[in-house]
Design a protein that fits this description.
With 385 residues, this protein is α/β, with parallel strands linked by helices. It has 2 domains: 9-148 and 283-352, Rossmann fold (3-Layer(aba) Sandwich), CATH 3.40.50; 150-276 and 366-377, Rossmann fold. It is 38% helix and 17% strand. It contains 11 helices and 15 strands. The strands form 3 sheets. It has a 7-stranded mixed β-sheet, sandwiched between helices. It starts with 8 loop residues before the first strand and ends in an 8-residue tail after the last strand. Belongs to the leucine-binding protein family. Residues 31-373 form the Leucine-binding protein domain. InterPro entries: Leu-bd, Leu_Ile_Val-bd, Peripla_BP_I. Keywords: Amino-acid transport, Signal, Transport.
């Protein structure tokens, strides 16, 4: 079953339910979840891949009898990676469609925009594809994060280069909440090592106008640049930087959408270092990777297991585990409490922990790089954590 953004009913259901829920979005036969992310536009590859991974897991759960006999129904809305649309679509799903919980948002500016909504309406938001600290510290009671933070990723990238003697760092960042989160995380990582940011350049969300940002980095004798943006502007920057003769090593965080970036750049992206929050998807020795690949092949055969769809699969697996732990008496508050009881829960080779004072399940960061147009592990180098 595939989904098409309309704003998009994805019916992952087995039978139709009679609505008389004690909690919005819960009936005797259904649990209705909402997904608001980019299904169109420059970041659509991220939203669609998150949807693929989640679809595979929720379909499988339904085929196995659902959650205490309730099947999962996922309603998908397209925000186009625009914060204003994220707000309006989230309100529509919560107020009109009466979703029980939100799942799989994509992006910092869009997710930040809906924090007041989930807090005021006490709607759980699970597994957002963003590492922003605004979703983590202080803990937002309604928000459950799977992935490592941008601070975790920035620190791993800085450590990677610093262990190789790099001292002159620059940052190219999208001028919004996401880019600033990576910028701030990089500055903190440098300060922990007695270093300072040498130069920074920015670009506007939704554009590939990166020349001004590149100009701000040229002429500073940079040795490494951390890039913060989705795959389209990052690819544009890589090409512009090559033409301009920028000699610095290039790196970026997981939000770039590694597989989409690789499709755009191929071997032009060789030696770019990319931090990931999930292991290599083709590591079939890892049970969760093998499981997610099999579920995608079964339920979304047109898709392949990418870094983003892998994250969608893992996050959905965590969601299903919490729903099952909550039991038949399903309420929003009880769901959050169930998440908070996970202590080194094994998701198939990845262990996650959540507590009332920690709503980030994983701190794991995996370093990769592009070599010969392929993604390979990056040697963490001396002194790596």
């Amino acid at each position: 079953m595939r989904v098409f953004p309309e704003c998009c009913w994805l019916a992952i259901t087995l039978v139709a339910g009679v609505v008389h829920a004690a909690e919005p979005g819960v009936t005797e036969t259904h649990i209705r979840l909402g997904m608001v992310n980019a299904q169109t536009g420059a970041a659509s590859g991220l939203g669609k891949a998150m949807l693929d991974g989640a679809t595979a897991v929720f379909q499988e759960a339904n085929q196995r009898g659902g959650i205490d006999g309730r099947s999962i129904e996922l309603v998908v809305a397209d925000d186009g990676y625009d914060p204003d649309r994220a707000i309006s679509e989230t309100l529509r799903l919560v107020e009109e469609k009466q979703v029980f919980a939100l799942f799989g948002n994509v992006g910092t500016p869009t997710t930040n925009a809906v924090i007041p909504i989930v807090q005021e309406m006490k709607v759980p938001l699970v597994g957002a594809f963003t590492g922003a600290m605004t979703l983590r510290r202080p803990v937002v009671h309604e928000i459950i994060n799977f992935r490592a933070s941008y601070d975790d990723e920035s620190d791993a990238l800085v450590q990677y280069f610093a262990s190789r003697g790099v001292k002159r760092f620059g940052v190219l960042y999208q001028d919004d909440g996401f880019g600033n989160a990576v910028l701030d995380g990089t500055v903190r990582a440098l300060q922990r090592r007695g270093l300072e940011l040498v130069a920074k350049g920015s670009f506007q969300r939704g554009t590939t106008a990166v020349k001004a940002g590149l100009a701000a980095l040229i002429g500073h004798d940079l040795q490494a640049v951390v890039m913060a943006g989705p795959y389209t502007p990052v690819a544009a920057f890589v090409r512009e930087a090559s033409q301009a003769g920028l000699k610095a090593a290039l790196s970026t965080v997981s939000f770039v959408g590694t597989d989409s970036l690789l499709q755009l750049l191929g071997t032009e992206g060789n030696n770019i270092v990319i931090s990931q929050v999930v292991p290599l998807p083709d590591d079939r020795q890892l049970p969760i990777a093998a499981d997610c690949a099999a579920l995608l092949a079964k339920h979304v055969p047109a898709a392949t297991l990418s870094f983003v769809s892998f994250e969608g699969c893992i996050s959905a697996t965590l969601m299903v585990a919490a729903l099952r732990r909550t039991g038949a008496d399903l309420t929003r508050e009880r769901l959050i409490q169930s998440f908070e009881t996970f202590d080194r829960l094994d998701l198939g080779g990845m262990r996650v922990t959540l507590r009332p004072d920690n709503h980030q399940a994983s701190t794991a960061v995996f370093l990769t790089r592009i070599a010969d147009g392929k993604i390979v592990p990056a040697d963490p180098g001396p002194g790596a954590k």
